[in-house]
Amino acid sequence: MRTLRISTARLCVRSFSLDDLDALHALTRQSAITDLLPDWAMSRGQCSEWLGWHVSRLDHFDAAAPVLPLAICLPDGELIGWLGIGPKPSVHLGMPEVMYALSSQHRGHGYVSEAVRAATCWFFAQGPVPALMVLVKASNAPSRRVALASGFVPRGHAMCDQDGRFELLVLERPAAMPMLEPVLDQDAAAIAALLVRVAAHEAEHWLDGASPFIPDHHLPAMHCFHRRSGDYRKIVCDGVLAGVVLVSSSGREHARIELLYLDPVYQGRGLGGQVLALVEAAYPQVRVWSLDTTRHSARNLPFYQRHGYVVVGQDEDEFYLVKRLPGPVDLREGRDFRATALAGADFNEVDLSQARISNSGMADACIR
Q1: pTM attached to this predicted model
Q2: What mean pLDDT, rounded, does the chain reach?
Q3: What are the pLDDT digits (tens) for 132-151?
Q4: From CA 66, how far away is CA 46, in angstroms rounded?
Q5: Which pairs from 347-353 meet CB under 8 Å and 24+ separation?
Q6: Residue 340 in 3-state DSSP?
């Protein structure tokens, strides 16, 4: 949780660190915030104690009983607000509350609703909590607009033991399906940051303490290169960048998954299988899929085998996998293809060791 980063189109929503003290304290001194949230009118010492307590709890996050403040930051790192997901026992409803605040200098751009949508999507992926709530005072119309723009639905009113009557807005757990979207050059920095998190997470969890080899994954330029050299797509879940997948294809019956990575916070939730299904649906003509996966991970090989891939080779580092889908196969060993129309055929994993090719049109042929 100390390295939690949730990227959106314009923001980074992340866990707090002790280095945020100055920026957070400056926000808590804005009357535009403390007039509505008087408990946040803290001295620097109080702010330091609050920050230290929450940072110390990051290693003990429990999605079933969350206490999680998150920093809302611009791409350059500037902290412009915060949101929190935590208990509200004084309303006796059993749902975690979502609360939020934003610097007065950055209001009117939809930043808070963008951050709340991303954070709640991430949160629902962590555990079985069925719903979240927002409580809004009748005088706080801007907060109500944020809740509505974030997908919360009015559900009457709720009484708080200390603070009286609030409007209640509820967001139920969505049945979200991931989407694949083309990577753009402006996505490169966010994808590089995502791959850095992936590499750090895998280094912790792979067998024998091995670290993954993802060439130049930390460089945005590499992701711009992937975008131009193959079919590079973002895995997006309710507007949040959840991973990436890179496919190379002959354009016909064979395609290869060059890389598939999910942000650690989205792993173990069934998202990977949905992504494989979406990739196959994007290439309906493909009958043979191939990929390779590390031997150092205990879970990678079983995952791909569950989704129809079989091992066709291995070395000390990798398993080499193939998945064959139903489709016609009309090539036979020893067959004479004289005067046969093969225009548009896709030759993949074909043994041509003693083939003889003569008097044949090979314009635009591609041999890999």
Answers
A1: 0.56
A2: 86
A3: 999 999 889 999 999 999 88
A4: 22
A5: 348/250, 348/253, 348/254, 348/288, 349/254, 349/288
A6: coil
